[in-house]
Amino acid sequence: MTTRRTDVELVKGVTGRQDDCFEELLERYGSKVINLALRITRCQEDAEEILQEVFITILTKVQSFEHKAQFSSWLYRVTMNASFMKIRTRNRRRSVSLEDVEPSIKQNWAGNRSELCDVDFMSSRHELRSAIQKAVDQLPEEYRAIFILRDIDGLSNEAVSRILQLSVPAVKSRLHRSRLIMRQQLRSHYDGYRNKDVVDDLEPVHVV
Predict the structure, then answer these.
(1) Please, where are the H alpha helices in 102-167?
(2) Does this model's pTM top 0.70?
(3) Which of 23, 68, 98, 135 is most buried as measured by Cβ atoms within 10 A of its Cβ?
(4) What is the CATH number of the domain that holds 36?
(5) What does DSSP assign to residue 92?
(6) Exposed, middle or buried, 49 (CB in 10 Å: 0-12/13-18/19+)?
(7) Helix H or strand E encompassing 187
(8) Which residues contact 177 (CB under 8 A, 6 or more apart)?
(9) Are residues 122 and 195 in the same domain?
(10) Confidence at residue 118, expressed as pLDDT on a 0 to 100 scale
(11) Residue 206 lies in a domain
């Protein structure tokens, strides 16, 4: 039985120019990188470019990785930096419809509802989700990063603090602020929906 190599072992292998180690890291983390990039940029093409950029960074700057930190945290940070840089350089401040994103991400946003819905229900769901997407896109970068990692990807405060190199209290403070901003932006939309099922279907995005 083959023992699964640790991230540290793979990183050391990449440093030593072992192609199989690089390929294993790509297989292990490639989908996580592209999904996170897609969360931020809302553009499949950008997310694929960021995937390439991130793994080029691994090849060229893996020596800068400090083994006292988790490789996954370092990788998340590199991905987020590349994603926000992509947005800034292309001046992309728009929302993308759910039909344009990767199916696995669309399922995360839209929920897993198998039964048929009437036209009014589907229309209200779509309008509310569009409002949520727009609200997330309009969050300032320092709040958007934490909101995506914490409330959309479901990472712990401790994990987010490692990724963004912030203290846990700072993460909690910014998360609270991001939720307040989201609540303010979405208040008018929530007031228009009295069907509790519509609101419940918003998971895993937690606006509290």
Answers:
(1) 103-110, 119-138, 141-147, 157-164
(2) no
(3) 135
(4) 1.10.1740.10
(5) -
(6) middle
(7) helix 168-191
(8) 143
(9) yes
(10) 47
(11) no
Q: Which residues of 198-208 are buried (b: 16+ CB within 10 A; e: fewer)?
A: beebbeebebe
Q: Which domain holds residue 147?
A: 118-200
Residues 82 and 122 in one domain: no
Domains held by the chain: number? 2
| Token output for 39 | 């969360």
Tokens of 110: 């839209």
Q: Which position has the token pair 């893996």? A: 62
* Block mean pLDDT (10 aa), the chain, length 208: 80 86 92 92 91 90 74 91 88 45 45 43 60 84 91 91 93 93 77 48 43
d(CA 127, CA 53): 34
Contact by Cβ (8 Å): 35, 105: yes
Residue 38 located in a structural domain = yes
Do residues 54 and 79 make contact, with C-beta atoms less than 8 angstroms apart?
yes
